Amino acid sequence: MGTVVGTVEDRREMFDVSAQTRITPFSSTNQIGNPVAYKLVRVAGDGRLVPATDEEILEVNETDVHSASDACQSLGYLPTEGSPSRLSQLEETSEVINLGLLRSDNVEPSTDQVNSQSEYSEEFLQKVEQDERLVMVSTPPDANIQCCNENNMFDEDQVHHEPLPFSSDVQNGCDVNQSNTVEPSSPKETALPAAAASQKPDFALVRGEICLDNLPIKALQETFRATFGRETTVKDKTWLKRRITMGLTKSFDVPTTNLTIKDNKLVGNQVKSNDVSDDVRATNVKEAPSSSAYHVNGHSKEASAHSLGVNHYWATEDFSCEERAAKRVRKPTRRYIEELSKTDDKSVVISKDHRLSEKSEVRSVSVSSGKRVTVTRVVPLGGSEVEVPYVSHVRRSRPRENFMALMECHTSCLEAKASGGESNLLNSEVVSPGSVVKSASGPIQNELATSHNNTNEENILTEADQDIEPDSSGNSSDEYNNTGTPMMQGGGLRRKHHRAWTLSEVTTLVEGVSKYGAGKWSEIKKLSFSSHSHRTSVDLKDKWRNLLRASFAQSPSNNVGSFKKHGSMHIPVEILLQVRELAEKQSLVPPNHR
DNA sequence: GTTAGGG
DNA sequence: CCCTAAC
Question: Which residues form the signal peptide (predicted)?
Answer without folding.
Answer: none
